[in-house]
Amino acid sequence: MTKIVLLRIGDTGEPIVPNLSGGVLTFPACPPDLNGPVGEPLFVLRFYIVSGSKICNNGKIWTNVVSGAKEKFNRASFTPTEISTSIYRDVMVDISIYQPGAYSYYITYNDLSDDELEIDKKSCSYHFVVPPSLFINGQYLTFNSVTLQSVCSKWVGTDFEKDWIPLFDDIKNKGYNMIHFTPLQKRGESNSPYSIYDQLEFDGAIFPGGEADVSRMVKILEKDYGILSMTDIVFNHTANNSVWIRDHPDVGYNEETAPHLVAAMELDSLLLHFSENMRQHGYDTIIRDEAALARILDGIKIHVLGQLKLWQFYIVNTNEHILKLEDYWRNEVDKLPEKIDVPANVSSDLQKLASFTVEKCKVKDFNIMGHRYDNKLDIAKFSNLLSNLYGAESDFNSVIKENALKILDEINLPLYHTYDTDNNTICSQLYNRIKYLRLDDHGPKLGEVTIENPLIEPYFTRFVDANGKRWSLANNGWIWGGNPLVDFASNQLKSYLLREVIVWGDCVKLRYGSKPEDSPYLWQRMISYSKQSAKLFDGFRIDNCHSTPIHVGTAMLDAARSVNPNLYVVAELFTGSEEYDILYVQELGISSLIREAMQAPSVAELSRLCHKHGGRPIGSFRWLPLDCISYPAHPMEYEKRCLEDIQCKSEIPIPQLVTSLEPHALFMDCTHDNEMPAQKRTVEDTLPTAALVSFCSCANGTTMGFDEGYPELLNIVNEKRKYTYGANMGISKVKKLLSDIRHEIANQSVDDIEKNEMYVHLENEFITIHRLNAKTGRGYLLVARTKFYQDGDQNLTPIVLHGVKAKPQFSYAFVNKQDSTSEEKDDGFIHPLKTELVELEQLSCSFDYDSLSTTISVPGFFPQGSIAVVATETIGCNEELDDYVRTGAIEAAKNLTLVDINAIMYRCDAEERDATNGQSGVYSIPNYGNLVYAGIQGWISILRTVIERNDLAHPLADHLRQGKWALDYVTNRLRPYESKNNSIHEFRVWLESRFSRIKDAPNFLIPRFFALIVGVAYEALRFTALKHMTKSIQHSTVFIQSLSMVSVEMVGLMNTASIHPFKKMPSLAAGLPHFSYDFMRCWGRDVFISSRGLLLSTGRYDVARDHILCFAKTLKHGLIPNLLGSGKDPRYNARDAAWFFLQFVQDYIHLVPKGEDILQEKVKRRFPLDDTYIPYDDEKAFSVESTLEDIIYEILSRHAKGIKFREANAGTQIDSQMKDEGFNIDIYVDWENGLVFGGNEWNCGTWMDKMGESVRAGNKGYPGTPRNGAAIEINGLLKSAIRFVIELHQKNLFKYDSVVNQHGDKITFKQWDSLLMDNFEKCFYVPENEEEDGNYIINSKIVHRRGIYKDLFRSTKEYEDYQLRGNFPIAYNVAPELFTKSHALSAIIVTDQILRGPLGIRTLDPSDLEYRPYYHNSVDNDDFATAKGRNYHQGPEWVWLIGYFLRAFAKLHFQEIDRCNIDRCVPSAYLQQLLWKRMTEHKKHFWHSEWAGLTELTNKDGDICNDSSPTQAWSAACLLDIYLDAWSEYGM
Questions:
Q1: Of the candidates 1085, 1086, 1091, which has an alpha carbon nearest to the alpha carbon of residue 1136?
Q2: Which parts of the sequence belong to the Glycogen debranching enzyme central domain (predicted)?
């Protein structure tokens, strides 16, 4: 079965991974089954795209992945896969991957412009690397188990049996499993392995049979020695005496292919000539000091630079231009080309005029070097310009020539400056290079200048071809701090002229150009070379990789992988930039980057390198899906996913993620081209350095001679001696022990890189590394005492390992026995220094049974250059424990109800105290603060980021290490919630059993296991909750599923806030934590605005029914209470709650199977039918029964007759802020138009219900937004209710067909419906054109904005009628028939442009004089409008309104705009993008919300409002309503 890995990609196609910019997208290791079916993919890459992303709009994923195992890879060939469009389901696109390599993808899609037109877009290209799989004789070799030995063939010998076989025996005995060979091809005249004479011919002295002999050697190595083979591959250069470059000189940078190098060539020739003739010029050929060097430099200035006349390559030849200009002026001036207009500000400024002239008239770019006097002006254009400046009739000598000379001289001025600067640079570079070569102590001190040993290295190789033509080809080299992406031999740089190249005189730099057609022979030859090498070897080391053009490297490696797909590719990059390193790794598919321990200048830096390459810190957090991906909650989908090969990290079948990791390292203790320890530090440091490198979680290696204790770096060019080696030489014996440990640890983590953990500690010259397998708990501890230099006595503080047992393994010191009398042998062999490997007393490992800790002490004699290793075993930590904490949660949760899950997952502080009678609240973390929830969600809100960042320093992690208090809290807090009626006990037992097991683990592992247990519990609870919900939710997006969980978050059992007066029943909170308990929890309007989304869309029909019936019990005055008061002490100060109640009853009947049955459900009424107020315990209370059908009718009939009363118990005891007049309630219908009116200027009976509270500002008792009169949303809800009862009556489900009004007249529902239909637009619409005002009830003088719907009709303050607010979309959604579609569309567009914020809808037009967008309820000041938050609804942006807005937006665009629908059947991708664009911030907000919800409101433009309830029921619910519309209307 093919393994599936998952890559989440974002809104514009970018990978959603931590550390994207600092890492490489890397697949997990997955060795193919060698005995499996041929042609199966290695992986399936599953792109996971969050629904509604921009890229879903006509999107395609383009990948250059091959479509079959035998298909040839073409990096430039991309195949599209369509992205299905949906904002209702997240999208998954599967791409099969058949071969390892470097791949990329990009996305094409239709984006929306600022004016929301569709425009074609293409994303950036993103690279991902599929690693090769290495096998040794059929056994898989992980990258971290690679242990490599570098070997230079010319130091081995030529007799394969006598020289090579013994070497292989030695390398095997040291524990190496890969040999890196320097190039085995025939070498050039310098005898350097990297100066290859012929890339296609092997060294005949060693391999007389050529390729066949090399192949035989590679096979012997694997079969007999268990060793893989790697070769250096050299793409950048060839030997300067290679025959084939003489036949094809175009493969190099010469005068024809690179004319910009002509000046550099002439300079180089003159330098060589000067070098050969120094004596004739009077200079000593032996340079003894800097004074002599200074004299020679003076000679260079005279005899080289003086003769070169370098300025001629920079400037414009004035005389030549004047002559040509005169000729043109006299003979061709009447044929001037198109006129060149010179701006006035240019013509008056000579410097600007000169620049303008160059820009308009230059023949070539003046910044690019060429031949002498190549910087030229087009004479015709120059003449044209002069003609326009001075007139075509002007005299040439007196006018044109004089001004032309001025311009030409001005042009030359900056060119001379550039020449001067470059000339000085050349002198400086020559001086420094000669000084390094001849005088510096750290240089080679080359001695006397001769023909064979010139003053300075030649930059060019010179030869005469078969036709007698002379050629100069640029030699290769490198540049300090150069940009690796710019070819230093190209015309973009002057590196060869400025002598900036550290040149290799024995190598010619190869010129590939930008494509094969630029140098066909070279490309063909080097591709053949690459393929031949890949066929023979298991791996490549790319020599000089950073100087190899990326397009060349990719082409060569693509060719190599076509022969050997599992090619292990390494490179040593000297880019000086991690960004460039990553670029090379991505593009070339480099498996491991070579890093070197010997480069560390200090013990501290060596410790840092070990930490960088050592693996994850011990105790690291483990990744879990949590809530970043939608759950396959539907049973069939879950079963399907469980059958996939996805290597789950928990019980939720979600694939392992492609991650962004730092490039994998091949950590070398010493490379073959750097100095040995005896040169840079001490020979004794060989052992600690080797051990430290071996303990790192990466590939490792060394050069031949390091283990043996060679005294110095072997010169790759000049060294002619042969290797010496042996089992007892140097540290060879210990290297085998270290290699065995490496392989043991690496083989324990083949399938999971997270298992590799380490701890690195630096103390003076001691470095300790503890390597640990995170799953098994087994590991090794290394103590290494370095010796960078001779130091005094130092001791290592005893190491205390808590919760760990330790057993000594071995301990050695590496001792230098070399003395001044030792003589170097001259026998043709390379001999090591005299050293001794001394076995030391083992480390002391003392275990204390009381503290369960081990104290490790270094013995008295542990000199510099010593190491010791102990095996460790973590108490209570093994594979069984890891599996145990990850499993069983779903089984334990299977019987939980959603109310049970509410208790386990959520509960803010007030809710928790309600459940525990004030005894316990949320958990407080020292140095952090309180959790927002007492339940699992509270921990997850912190852990999500902690896990992602592996933040072991977080206060929570520190707290968990300090003690087990949090573990006990998580389980003990559930006890008060347990009862015979729920299954919380079973889940608590699961938690308790897991926590009990980890209590025995060491403290440093507690954070990881705690996070695992809590994370697995969270996933099980979320999964179980979603299983209880509708099929649409189960199949939906991660965002919808998260919104749906707000239903669980908000509905719970409360002691102080049941919806039933005498039974404990779950109640829906308006928001948390502000509206969480007692009488403030259940609000009539909030409940019924929220219930469609939170209860019906999720399938919680029983809870919905209970809320309908329990609120119906409390009907009084024809009103549903604003505050329920548990059904005992309701308050009736809301004019809109009854209408939202009726709307929800209608939704319930339409959406719930057999929902109409609820109409005949009976409820016992809290109050007598005559509205008399009585206490809830009065015998008359709850004595009258009514059916819900009667309740509905009573609401309508009471409104028809008019409602007028004073609130019961009016006064400060029920409202301390309201003025006395505000307690008077007056609601009536105007039968001229059928609209319902109500309220007065002293109360606020709609949802905009903020009462002024500030005595200081004088606004106490003054409502912020009274909205008396006919509110638009109430009348939309009224129309919806009338339509609903008419429909019910026609179906014989509602026995009433009329009401009696306040005048005693009978009014049928159909008559009332007609009145509303006839008058709604007339009363509420404000036409776009003033000329149409006569058709509506309009006071044109007050109109502030047109093309909108009034918020009110006939309010006390007439101007408030015309205020633009976000309430009309509510009316449109429930009663669209009231609206003229074109008017409604225009109004919704105005709302979109004026009122829509990032998260919510502005509650008032920003251009309104009363607009105050910042709500600060806690601030009391002198501002009447805002003190104590009176402006609650006067500008702040409320989130719930955007749900109604988007529903109306979607319906109107679908109905009225053709491109927003497909054949009038379903919404188009374009419409879905319009909607998703408007919900982008909601998704972000939800993801970052520790409350796992959407806030109540924001301040201006989405600014955080600290006084807002951070999670509000209707905010999430009204977004779910959008999806419910689509599911019910379009079946999506």
A1: 1085
A2: 730-974
Contacts 24+ apart (CB under 8 A), 1169-1178: 1171/1116, 1171/1117, 1171/1205, 1173/1208, 1173/1209, 1176/1061, 1176/1127, 1176/1128, 1176/1129
How far apart are alpha carbons 382 and 483 in whole angstroms? 37
Contacts of 1264 (CB under 8 A, 6+ apart): 1244, 1248, 1250, 1251, 1252, 1430, 1431, 1432, 1433, 1434
**Whether pLDDT at 1532 is above 70:** no
| Structure-model confidence comparison of residues 482 and 1392, the more confident one | 1392
Instruction: Summarize pLDDT for 555-576 with one digit per residue, the tens.
Output: 999 999 999 999 999 999 887 7
Dig out the tokens for 306 from the structure.
């003086």
The catalytic residue among 237, 260, 546, 1453 is 546
Q: What is the pLDDT of residue 574?
A: 83
3-state secondary structure of 314: coil
Which amino acid is located at 1173 in the chain?
Answer: Y
DSSP 699-747: EEEEETTTTTT-SSPPPTTT---B----TTSTTHHHHHHHHHHHHHHHH
Residues, the chain, total? Answer: 1532
Hey, how many other C-beta atoms are within 10 angstroms of the C-beta on 72? 10
The yes-or-no answer on residue 1525 being catalytic is no
Are the beta carbons of 777 and 841 closer than 8 angstroms? no
Terminal C-alpha separation, the chain? 32
Q: At residue 785, what is the residue type?
A: R
673 as an active site residue: the answer is yes
Residue pair 1251/1263 in contact (Cβ under 8 Å)? The answer is yes
Q: Which of 203, 232, 487, 543 is catalytic?
A: 543
179: left (phi over 0), alpha (psi -120 to 50) or beta: beta
Cα→Cα distances 110→85, 1191, 1404, Å: 12, 52, 34
Beta-bridged to residue 1072, according to DSSP, are: 1511
The catalytic position among 163, 169, 378, 673 is 673
DSSP character at residue 894: T
Phi, psi of 551 (to 5 degrees): -65, -25
DSSP code for 1075? B
Better-scored residue on pLDDT, 832 or 86:
832
How far apart CA 584 and CA 573 sit, in angstroms, is: 9
Q: Is 543 assigned a catalytic role?
A: yes
Side-chain half-sphere CA neighbours of 1085 within 13 A: 18
Joined together, the tokens standing for residue 800 give 């205390």
Question: E strand or H helix at 550, and its extent?
Answer: helix 550-563
Of 1007, 1012, 1005, 606, nearest to 773 (Cα)? 1005
At residue 821, does pLDDT exceed 70? Answer: no
Give the closest residue to 893 by CA, choosing from 762, 989, 756, 1015.
989
